[in-house]
Structures are given as C-alpha cells and as structure tokens.
Amino acid sequence: MWRDLTSAGWTQRAGLGQLAAALGADNIRWVGGAVRDGLLGLDVHDVDCATMLTPDAVIAACGRAGIRTVPTGIEHGTVTAILADGPIEVTTLRRDVATDGRRATIAFASDWCEDAARRDFTINALYAHPETLEISDYFGGRDDLAARRVRFIGRAEDRIAEDHLRILRYYRFQARFGAALDAEAEAACAALAHTLKGLSRERIAAELLALLALADPYPTLARMHAHGVLGVILPEAGADEVAALAALIAQEAAQGLAPDPIRRLAALLPASPQLAEVVAARLRLSKFQRGRLVSASARSAADADNPRALAYAMGVPPAQDRLLLLGADARALADWQPPVFPLKGGAIVAQGVSAGPAVARILKSIEARWVAEGFPPDERIAQILSEELAKI
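Above: the chain's sequence. Below: its structure in token form.
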C-alpha cells in the first residue's frame, strides 16, 4: 500500500488540474475509488469529484472555463464535466433526509464529514485535496485499507437499512479487497439478507456479475450461501452448485483462461437450459448474456469428445464455457479460429447433381465428415466429394 497519492499516475491528468482551477481547489476533493485504488497502487480509470458548490454553480464555473457539462444526475447533485482525458462526475456534498432501502431523498450539505458519513464503507470515504493530495479520512478508512478490512461506516445495520444493495456491495468489496472478515458486517448482511427481495433485478444482477468477474469469488460465494444471502438472490444455487463454481475457477486458472461472469453464473445453476432461461429473464440479462447462459446450461459429456468440432458448431467462447464447466481441456481452442467450409453447392452441381435438396444433403454430409476428420485440406474434401457422389 502506498503512503500517499504522489506516485499515482491518475493524479497527473491535465484535465483534473483544469477542473480544479475552474471550480477552485478548496471547493473540491477527489473521492472514492480513485483515492482508494491509488493508495493500493491499482490502475484507476474513473475519477469522482465531490464539491461544496451547488450543481448550478458547477455548471456556471465550468462554462466560464470552457468546460462542457452534462446534467447526468442533477436531481442527486451530479454533473459530469467533459474533459479531454476523460469525463469526471462532480457531485455536490449531500446528506440523507430519508431512505427506504432502495432510494434516498437527499439535501445538499457543506461539510465534508457529513458527506462522508452517508457513504457505505470506510475505504470509500477517503477524500484527496486536488493540489496537495492530502487525504481527509474521517472514519479510519486508511487503517482499514492497510488491514484489507471492509467495514461499514457507523452501524452496519443502519447503512444497510439505507440501501439494501449494500449487502451485495459488501461481499463484492470484501472479495476484492478483504482479508480479515469484519464480524459486525458479516452478521448484519446475514440478518438482513431478506431485504434484498425488494430490490430491482437489474441492480442485483449487476452486483452479482461484478462479484463473479473477480479473480476468485468462491470463498465469498460460499459464505453468502452459508449466510442465506445467495439463496435470496439465486435460490437455484445449492451446495453442489457452489462447489461447481470452485471447480470451474480452478479449471480457469489451470488452463490460463480469463474469468467470465456468465460462465461462472452457469456453474451456480443446475445444467438445465429451461432453468437458465428463467434465471436470465428474472435477472434481466441481455440477449447476448442469455444466449451464453442457456448454451452453457445445455452442456453434456459428449461435448468434450471433439472440442474443435464443438467450437466450429457454436463458436469458441460458448465451447470454452461448456468444456470448462465439464472439467475438460479447453486449451485446444486457445487462439484457434474456426475455419470456413470451402465447398459450395455449385461444385456439386458441376458434378451433374441437379440443384435442389440433394445438393444440400450432400453438402451437409461432406461438411460433417470434414469436421469429424479435423478440417482436412481441399484435397481431402475433393476425395470426400467423390465418395459421397459414388453413393448416389
């Protein structure tokens, strides 16, 4: 862990200096993930800015400096500043007036600590001055970051009551950053797991897939299952399915293949295309995600007999999904591009076969043999064509 942000590359972006000059360095702080990840020496892509200025004042100040703004979440105090090296979300300091576990009614504030108090975890409530990079830490976030501990700000139950999705965010952050478990957070998430039922399926799916995309989410998913949390958001996932996820992650690592959240979601479901359709609809997955999930759920032991034939029929990524889920070797597909079947119907017609269904049948038979033989060269295709014509 770094002691400060002076070596963090993102702090040198020219656009940040331009924004600080426009809004006034003492009026803003960099906050959240960029500060957290910068202290850990991790790559930072998005930078968020908190400000004492109201949204109208931010828009006006940026306009005078020639910075275009977009009112992306102005009802919540957020304006996006469009800079040459990337957009920055600028959010006015806030305090919660009322919450219902799904959304909050907010009021603007003028105190940095008050804004920090409404955030979820101590490691996400770190503020950095844009010029000095001095960090303001109101709740012990730096110590928690050094200890790799994910801890709610204040009482865990209170933070979860404000937004039930924080249960899933806790598990995701703990899987990414955590080492020692925070007993209060673990107990609160287990006790309040039932509150997840009131959230939109889209929000649940986004958090679940983000968790599954991490390097090794198995220990976290196992705890979620033991705590009764996984059963609320994915009741189809039992002990056997959680164990299947562990096996899949081991296969991905052994074969040098990157994690895929949809493939891992398939591991958490029984191998049933019909059930996969139901889950995909419930989680509001995209058409592409649904297709991958259903395909992976249709796996069978025969898929491992000829990996390249499988990939030729359905594409490399879906074939890799099935092989990995079966515990089979998918390395034969690494950097492999399925070839294009070179024979056309005209070549068969040229041999005296009348155009029509017969040509299609012969073409299909030749292609099946070509695939089964491992995609041999054109000379062998010509031989197979002669053999098929001899059968007429």
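The chain has a mean pLDDT of 94.
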